[in-house]
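#struct-help
A.M.: can someone run this one for me? Single chain, 532 residues.
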Amino acid sequence: MNFKSVWSDNAGNFAARSLSENEKSTAKWFSLVTIFILGQTPRHRMALSASPGRVMGVVLAFLMLSAQAQAGSLPDFTELVEKHSAAVVNISTTQKIKHPKVSRRPHSMPEQIPEGPLGDLFRHFFGEQGRGFGDHGGGHGGGHGGIEPQEAKSLGSGFIISEDGYVMTNHHVVKNATEILVRLSDRRELVAEVIGSDARSDIALLKVDADNLPVVKIGNSGHLKVGEWVLAIGSPFGFDHSVTAGIVSAKGRSLPRENYVPFIQTDVAINPGNSGGPLFDLDGNVIGINSQIYSRTGGFMGLSFAIPIDMAMQVVEQLKDGGKVARGWLGVLIQDVTRELAESFGMDKPRGALVAKVLKDSPAEKAGLEVGDIITRFNNESVVRSSNLPPLVGISPVGEKVKVEILRKGEVKILKVTLGELPDDNVQAATGEPSTANETRLNITVMDLTAEQRKKLEIKEGGVIVQKIQAGPARKAGVRRGDVILMINNVDIKNAKHFAEISAELPVDKSLPLLVQRRGGPVFLALKIKEK
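D.P.: on it. Structure tokens below:
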């Protein structure tokens, strides 16, 4: 745009009509702003003061240029898409689905089967003569009265990470697939082999038989900042190479049942079919793999989650080398530190991961970690929330000796732990004790555990089970009937008699940590006894 022409054209328009007093006053006020911005000489200032119409033209031109500058500051994704979309692929899979048994009773059909898609649907399930699933002759199950396994197809996305045909996608995209087809941007369709797939990280590595393929650039998700622009390319609902953009909403998100992935949260529109596709930064580097959405409808609602590429590449390297992933293992069950629990442990603010249980024969037990310890740092990395710990442990090599900083009864301690390999499951031993009953000042009735209860609850020793609970401090803290109280105020409970003794000496008007075991696992509660 030619600034001089805009100036003269708009000046002429404003000068062509008489200005009101308000417009003149406004023009003179704007002239001060214009002079400051444009740095006019005294001669120009006199000219502008004498010509309010020209001033208004200047202001209008300035506003137009500002709007253009603001529009120009928005990102342009066209070059990024043109350069990197060819490395994004569509993945279609086939699975065998076994139908449940169905009744042999014929299903009713209309006398005349309609034409078109509805008729095709009727014929698929009922046959040409309208007989039921279990009928002999002409039905969908044929003369055997059964149903053959059906093929189900699903769609996802992926991206090429090497010229010789390695493709990365999500585990859930290829799970249980009997056939995997990778469709390239040039419309070639190649059968893919699963090199390895990891459910915990939701990463799968595929291989197609091809050379000289276009590849993506792998970035560094650790450098990603909240508020940064990002772009996704994928196949939502089967629409290949669809492009959507947004910003990074948060980092290090922990999702239910996804303990080992610190997700990148974005507001990029992600829908079914985008899974496994790349998330790019503005430099064209892949910084994440689109994996999940939060939705109440099944479609996009402004919350999407991507696996950081740094973690994904670590998983891929292990899958390529051995077909499986080995993760570090500490051997503790943890929970978040709430405000009340922080007060009960003498902390100035909630932080760290509270150890609710130390598994038997685990690296944590061998290193001396105890129930009630609060892990604040792991391998020189801060643990702000309990969700920070599992990814830190998981990415650490098996057999590595790491420093673990803990807060124990108000004192900071540093332990050295040699990490084990994360097992598939853990089994705890159990023993039993005789039963006695006792009622305490907490308005609860507790009993010692029987041998059968210990075996069922996987509690080796100590603890008391809550038989009855009334209104009082324990109920207010969240204690339930059937809970097993293992520790109170950092003291392990031996039996019902010991529990009564400890309860009688508890301080008032102070939050105290209370550890209970329930069906969902061990959990700390904050107990406070009010002074009467």
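A.M.: thanks! The radius of gyration is 34 Å.
D.P.: also worth noting: The chain has a mean pLDDT of 79.
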